[in-house]
Design brief:
The structure holds two protein chains of two kinds.
Chain A lengths: L3 E9 L5 E10 L2 E6 L6 H8 L7 E6 L2 E2 L4 H5 L2 E4 L11 H11 L5 H14 L15 H12 L6 E5 L7 H14 L4 E6 L2 H7 L2 E6 L2 E6 L1 H6 L5 E6 L4 H7 L1 E8 L2 E7 L9 E2 L4 H11 L1
Parallel strand pairs in A: 3-8, 3-9, 6-7, 7-8
Antiparallel strand pairs in A: 1-2, 1-4, 4-5, 9-10, 11-13, 11-14, 12-13
Helix pairs in contact in A: 3-4
Chain B lengths: L1 H14 L1 H15 L1 H5 L13 H14 L1 H8 L1 H8 L3 H5 L5 H30 L15 H30 L2 H18 L5 H7 L4 H7 L5 H6 L6 H24 L7 H13 L18 H20 L2 H17 L15 H28 L1 H5 L2 H5 L5 H33 L7 H30 L2 H18 L28 H26 L8 H41 L5 H15 L9 E12 L4 E11 L6 E7 L6 E8 L3 E4 L7 E10 L4 E10 L18 E4 L5 E2 L10 H6 L14 H4 L12 E9 L3 E3 L3 E8 L2 E7 L9 E5 L2 E7 L10 E7 L7 H18 L7 E7 L12 E5 L16 H11 L15 H20 L2 H21 L14 H19 L1 H15 L14 H11 L2 H12 L6
Parallel strand pairs in B: 1-10, 16-17, 17-18
Antiparallel strand pairs in B: 1-2, 2-7, 3-6, 3-9, 4-7, 5-6, 8-14, 10-13, 11-14, 12-13, 15-16
Helix pairs in contact in B: 1-8, 2-8, 4-8, 4-9, 5-9, 5-10, 6-9, 8-9, 9-10, 9-14, 10-17, 11-12, 11-14, 12-14, 16-21, 17-18, 18-21, 18-22, 18-23, 21-22, 21-24, 22-23, 22-24, 24-25, 29-30, 29-31, 30-31, 31-33, 32-33, 33-34, 33-36, 34-35
């Protein structure tokens, strides 16, 4: 199986925003999590991968295929679920899937019908396949989105912030589906939700302000904080002072009280409790360091 | 609170670019508003900045721009729903009244601001540097403000109220887009109301109301009076203001401050319930996507289907179609001819009517759905998914194009069905499906296809729906305008020329070939546009033009490179072929070149205008017509006599100025030297070595051929056609300067520094008193013609048919006149049916029967009996009361509808297929105009052919007014008095309408020049008055005496000049009692009003 190799990808928008700066990633088959805050450049990267916009420099290689030079070749093996998308409100999901299948080159009528029905079953929309898409709920629409992305048995599946707006049950179902697909395919999942990556992805990268900060296996990444992470419950109005004195990577409320996580090479003091690092801590520390 | 909403609305609108855009658009539109609204209408003496003209222009502009009002007024409430902020607004303690009134008044204020540009624009339009000051009154601000306040503002209030309420209650953007059109349709519907007052009352744009209110105004009134604020205008305004107020009241009552309606809530609930939690666990079947050419064709087909189905499912589309059919239904198909009688609903008339009424809707569909279809993915935000599919760009754009073509096809097929239904309804069962299909799919369809390609291109180029629509509209307008700037060549004028009119006799004739080549040429250009569109079409996130270009080019280079090259080279190749035909094989002259040629002609040759030239006394011709080649070959000779008092040293021969017409072998029976210094004007001077003495006759031989090569694209060659050839002897060589080649338009003459041209010479101009026609070559001629044509066509000219034979597949006819005729005779040839009869006109004496013949096109039998009866009754009456009929035959011969007149020549009346032959005369309600027109033409056998009038002012009173009188009397013989009254009413209406449009001070009948409304319409009325004053016998007596004394031939007392109205009126005065003398003066010598 071919890897997706991104080398030195840069993109600066006309308004001066540097959305990507020398991004290099190596993505093998399986689920790959792309983590980053809003505005980090995730969607730019995803759209560039999906041939929807051009990079200023750098290359993207899927196996032997230079996707920037031959975007249409990539599209033939691409499944793409954008962060936001709409549908023709008056069409049924079956009709629109059928239409998209034609666009993806599935010309054989029987084949098309089979894949459309199988996918509708898979994303559990078969029962409502004749319903107008305009009447779909957010979750149903999202499931439709994944169905269309899978129409052509893609080699590369790009899903951009797919779980936004899904309830927990739907989110789980969605993940199951993705990981199943990930057994044969490169799946790039972009998200700002740490848990998504943690639960699904054997490999990941964190991206912020257009740069790849770290990439690798989540467990290895977490190890970078191993033994350096401490937690303390403090009073709300002490927060500013703690932020000055320590390297606070997260502050949140826990049962109504202020909880801070602090990174330190040495034990910051007896009132601090040493804790196991989780991925969110890694993420926060990386974002804040940058 | 109220003020908050009001102020918000204004601030919001002032920040939006479209506000300024609309303002600018309306402003620019208004600057040329008068020209646009009154294009093709001669305002006559009414000035372009008179209040009435301003009011009508403002009304029309506002009416056409109602869609702008809808876009401003329809959205203020809808916007809150669209952006889903109703929950945030309605949760506040606001009152419905302040919310609605604030939004309404705020938007209305903005609307007034935008439409004030109509006022400013029209004012600026009055000061354009190229305006002709004599078309304008001195500037008066009130002339603009009053119509604006009184016509435009109430109209806007009505529109604003209705649009606002409709938008607020339906909360549907489509309603906002279409309701402006609906109002327009409403307006068109009111045009179908027959009661004038009701029509004026219900006209939302007050155009009909203005017409009604200004009925009976004189030119002075029209230039001076402001728009009346009483009467029908007041009623109209009150009515529409009331409609506006009621709409607001209904809106206020019905509107509720509720963010979510129960309906949508229920729907969502239902959907949730349907989702079951089970999951599917089987593995996905594998698919094999294919991308080869066959697959792409399949994609093209399936996508075309998909896109066209999606338009067919749009309510807006059906709304437009329903509107279109309502307009057709209400306006009904108008089959009126110029004589106030309907025609039979022949297929070509149906097509022309249907196209005329549907073309606006076609344009709406085109502009609207070509933008819709290009941006449909983007509009619903499906574009990222769509653009990430491997669909070939060209297949993508082409399928959208084809889908639109399918839409047009469906609309056209429905129109054809409607046409057939209409024909059936009217008891006309001669369905010509081939004509229908050709009419729509050869003519309108390629036009639509080309503009669609342009529209798709502009959508892709601008990368913006709105700008694309705008560019398309601007392109269409520029295209119409461009041909007036000298780019008349079919290769430069996008889409080429329109298809020539269809004729039952000649079909599309030879025009079709050139038309198809030009269309093919432009379709290839369209193909290139489509390729460009596929390159430039916005894909993914790239919106910059240059990026799209390089990127698109990269992606299509392989797949489309060869195809584009083929298109381009075919385009150039066919363009070259067309150019070869129009400019190498034929000559192409644009308007400027033609004008300057005419000007130079006049400047160089005017010196010869009145030099003495011999007169033709005998013409012997051999005319071989080749209709299938559109060619002729004429050989023959003239006998020419010097009728002047001095010897003639030079013969000036003017060849017809036309390409492909060759005059050769000109030879005289004495020695000549030819002088070719004016050969540029096809004008050769033959110097006679031995001058032609007064009274002497000589012979002139010549040979003239017409031999078309290749094709031309301007649809103007109508003389010799496949079936329905019709031309007259004016194509033959002529003597001396020809006034007909002079520039006529005053402005154009000024441009070339030529003195203004008299329409007709003064009544005492001795040089024209001896001419019966401008530059006449003869005072009477004996004609001997052998005319041949392709079998099975028959060919005619004036004279007795003395022999007829067939040789080598050609039909030959030998015609000879037994006496002098005027030097004006036709050549006709077509595949005719004929109906014959004979009669002995009662005034002719028993031994002189006249053979009556009508040569007509198969299928045009409807009115043959009426025409035949009219010929008989006319010959009877005229021969009895004026003098005997001079020929042994009278023929009516049909010719194609490229020209729409009937014309009387010696013993023969060429009669256009578009008048008389297809009139559907209902004797209950119509005047029998087939009968009348025939009688009028037969009367010319006396007035014009027996008695000629001098080529000076008043000539047309003698020729036409007397023919009108004669025909009217024959009509009176056959039909009851009320038909005569109906006929006179029609004459009065036509006269008054034309009088308003005439830009000339009206002349009395006796000095009439070329104003047909005076010599036809007013003439008929005046003669009827005269008849009432002095009685039919006296009028006839006067005319008989006049004819006797002034007839051109067999007249021993003939003077050396032709008659004028001065003579004619003396004959009237002779027979009139003293009490009626004043009436004669009043009717003919003064430009009085007619009752």
């Amino acid at each position: 199986m071919e890897n997706l190799i991104i080398t030195g990808l840069s993109k600066t928008y006309s308004n001066g925003v540097k959305a990507l700066q020398h991004v290099s990633l190596q993505i093998p088959k399986g689920m790959f999590g792309l983590l980053g805050p809003n505005g980090a450049g995730k969607s730019t990267l995803m759209r560039t991968l999906a041939t929807l916009q051009e990079a200023d420099s750098g290359s993207i290689q899927l196996g032997d295929l230079n996707t920037l030079e031959h975007p249409n070749e990539l599209r033939k093996v691409l499944g793409y679920l954008p962060q936001q998308f709409g549908v023709y409100p008056t069409l049924s999901s079956e009709m629109l899937l059928n239409h998209l299948a034609v666009l993806k080159g599935i010309i054989n009528r029987k084949e098309r019908k089979e894949i459309v029905h199988a996918l509708l079953h898979k994303v559990n929309l078969y029962e409502v396949r004749t319903q107008k898409l305009g009447e779909f709920s957010g979750g149903m629409k999202q499931r439709f989105g994944i169905a269309q992305a899978l129409l052509n048995n893609p080699k590369l599946l790009i899903v951009d912030e797919p779980t936004a707006g899904l309830d927990p049950v739907e989110r789980n179902r969605f993940y199951n589906l993705l990981s199943e697909v990930g057994e044969q395919t490169i799946v790039i999942l972009s998200t700002h939700i740490v848990d998504d990556v943690k639960e699904l992805c054997p490999r990941m990268a964190i991206i912020n302000k257009g740069r790849v900060i770290i990439q690798g296996n989540p467990i290895q990444i977490m190890e970078s904080l191993q033994g350096r992470l401490y937690e303390k419950t403090i009073h709300k109005n002490e927060l500013e002072q703690y932020k000055k004195e320590y390297q606070v990577i997260s502050d949140r409320l826990y049962l109504g009280r202020q909880l801070v996580h602090v990174v330190s090479d040495t034990h910051p003091g007896p009132t601090f409790k040493s804790i196991e690092a989780n991925l969110e801590d890694v993420y926060m520390s990386q974002i804040l360091n940058a | 609170m109220w003020y908050e909403f009001f102020a918000f609305e204004i601030k919001y609108r002032l920040k939006r670019p479209e506000t300024y855009f609309f303002f600018l658009l309306l402003f620019l539109f208004s600057v040329v508003g008068v020209e646009f609204v009154f294009q093709g209408i001669d305002l006559g003496l009414v000035k372009k900045n008179s209040p009435l003209v301003i009011a009508k222009s403002m009304g029309a502009i506002t009416g056409l721009s109602m869609i702008i009002a809808s876009m401003i007024m329809g959205v203020p409430i809808l916007r809150d729903f669209q952006y889903d902020i109703t929950s945030l607004i309605y949760v506040n303690p606001i009152s419905k009244r302040s919310y609605l009134s604030g939004r309404f008044l705020g938007s209305f204020a903005v609307l007034l601001l935008i439409f004030s540009s109509v006022l400013w624009g029209m004012i600026v339009g009055a000061f354009l540097p190229w305006n002709d000051p004599k078309d304008f009154l001195p500037f008066q601000f009130i002339n603009y403000v009053q119509p604006f306040l009184w016509v435009v503002i109430p109209m806007l209030f009505f529109g604003a109220s209705v649009f606002f309420v409709a938008g607020a209650l339906t909360k549907n953007l489509m309603v906002v887009y279409t309701q402006g059109i609906v109002i327009f349709v409403l307006f068109m519907i009111t045009k179908g109301i027959t009661n004038e007052t009701l029509q004026a009352l219900f006209d939302p744009f007050s155009l009909t109301a203005l017409t009604k209110a200004s009925k009976g105004w004189t030119v002075t009134d029209r230039n001076a009076l402001l728009i009346p604020v009483f009467g029908i205008m007041l009623l109209n305004k009150l009515f529409w203001i009331a409609v506006g107020v009621s709409a607001l009241a209904i809106g206020y009552v019905k509107f509720q401050l509720i963010a979510i309606s129960e309906k949508t809530f229920n729907k969502k609930q239902k959907q949730k319930a349907l989702t079951s939690p089970e999951t599917f666990t089987g593995s996905l079947p594998s698919v094999t996507p294919v991308y080869h050419v066959k697959a792409q064709l399949a994609q093209l087909f399936l996508n075309t289907w998909f896109h066209s189905m999606s338009i067919l499912k749009l309510i807006s589309f059906w709304a437009i179609i329903v509107c279109c059919f309502i307009v057709i239904l209400v306006n009904s198909v108008s089959l009126g001819t110029s004589h106030g009688v309907d025609s039979y609903p022949t297929t070509y008339l149906m097509i022309e009517e249907l196209q005329e009424m549907s073309i606006y809707f076609f344009m709406i569909i085109l502009v609207f759905y070509s933008s819709e279809i290009m941006w449909k993915e983007r509009d619903v935000k499906l574009n990222l998914i769509h653009d990430a599919t491997p669909l070939n760009r060209f297949v993508n754009v082409s399928s959208r194009f084809l889908a639109l073509l399918i839409i047009y096809t469906i609309v056209m097929l429905s129109l054809i069905a409607a046409g057939i239904l209409f024909q059936t309804w009217n008891g006309y069962y001669h369905y010509e499906l081939d004509v229908y299909f050709a009419g729509f799919f050869l003519d309108l369809f390629p036009f639509m296809a080309l503009y669609t390609l342009a529209a798709l291109f502009f959508q892709a180029l601008t990368g913006n729906k709105f700008m694309g629509m705008l560019a398309t509209i601007a392109f269409a307008i520029i295209n119409v305008a461009i041909s007036t700037f000298g780019l008349e060549h079919a290769l430069l004028n996008f889409g080429g020329n329109a298809l020539a009119p269809y004729s039952d006799m000649n079909g599309y004739g030879h025009f079709l070939t050139a038309y198809l080549w030009v269309k093919l040429y432009w379709m290839l250009f369209g193909g290139l546009l489509l390729i460009l569109a596929s390159i430039l079409m916005v894909k993914g996130n790239e919106t910059g033009l240059r990026k799209r270009w390089t990127r698109g080019l990269n992606q299509v280079r392989d797949s489309l490179g060869i195809f584009s090259l083929v298109c381009l080279s075919l385009f150039i190749g066919i363009g070259g072929y067309i150019f070869y035909n129009t400019n190498v094989l034929n000559e192409f002259w644009n308007k400027d070149e033609q004008n300057s040629f005419r000007a130079e002609y006049e400047k160089s040759l005017k010196q010869f205008e009145y030099i003495p030239q011999p007169k033709i006394t005998y013409a012997n011709l051999r005319v071989d017509l080749f209709p299938s080649k559109r060619a002729y070959e004429i050989t023959g000779f003239y006998h020419i006599t010097n009728t002047s008092g001095e010897p003639i040293h030079e013969i000036h021969v003017q060849k017809r100025i036309a390409s492909k017409v060759v005059l050769k072998d000109v030879a005289f029976d004495r020695e000549t030297t030819s002088n070719s210094s004016f050969i540029k004007y096809h004008y050769t001077i033959y110097k006679l070595n031995q001058p032609l003495a007064p009274g002497d006759t000589m012979k002139m031989n010549f040979r003239q051929t017409l031999q078309p090569e290749g094709f031309e694209t301007d649809n103007s060659d109508i003389d010799v056609v496949y079936n329905g050839t019709f031309f007259d002897n004016t194509v033959l060589p002529s003597f001396g300067y020809q006034k007909k080649y002079e520039l006529e338009d005053e402005g154009e003459r000024r441009d070339y520094a030529l003195a203004p041209r008299l329409y007709k010479s003064q009544r005492d101009d001795v040089r024209e008193l001896v001419n019966a026609r401008s530059g006449s070559d003869s005072d009477g001629v004996i004609l001997d013609v052998i005319i041949s044509t392709d079998a099975p066509q028959k060919a005619m000219t004036s004279g007795d048919l003395v022999a007829e034979w067939n040789l080598d597949g050609r039909n030959y006819f030998h015609y000879k006149t037994n006496q002098h005729i005027i030097n004006f005779y036709p050549f006709l040839s077509a595949d005719y049916e004929v109906v014959r009869d004979t009669c002995t006109p009662s005034g002719n004496g028993a031994e002189t029967p006249v053979a009556l013949e009508i040569y007509y096109h198969r299928g045009h039998e409807y009115n043959l009996n009426r025409m035949m009866e009219s010929m008989k009754m006319s010959l009877d009456y005229y021969s009895t009361h004026f003098g005997p009929y001079q020929h042994k035959q009278l023929r009516i011969v049909e010719f194609p509808r490229y020209r729409t007149f009937a014309q009387s020549l010696p013993g023969i009346i060429p009669f256009s297929e578009s008048i008389g032959f297809i009139m559907n005369i209902d004797d209950k309600k119509d005047v029998d105009m087939a009968f009348y027109v025939t009688a009028h033409e037969v009367a010319h056998q006396w007035w014009g052919l027996q008695l000629e009038a001098a080529n000076v002012q008043g000539q047309n009173m003698i020729l036409e007014t007397l023919a009108q009188y004669s025909a009217m009397i024959v009509l009176k013989e056959k039909y009851p008095e009320e038909k005569i009254q109906q006929f006179l009413k029609l004459q009065l209406d036509e006269y008054l309408e034309a009088k308003l449009k005439s830009s000339k001070e009206e002349l009395p009948l006796m000095l009439v020049e070329n104003e047909s409304h005076i010599y036809y319409n007013k003439g008929a009325l005046a003669m009827y008055e005269l008849l009432k004053h002095i009685g039919e016998e006296n009028v006839n007596m006067a005319l008989q005496n006049f004819l006797n004394d002034w007839r051109s031939f067999n007249n021993p007392q003939k003077t050396n000049r032709y008659s004028t109205t001065l003579d004619l009126i003396q004959y009237f005065q002779e027979v009139a009692p003293d009490s009626a003398q004043y009436a004669i003066t009043d009717l003919f010598e003064r430009a009085n009003k007619i009752k």
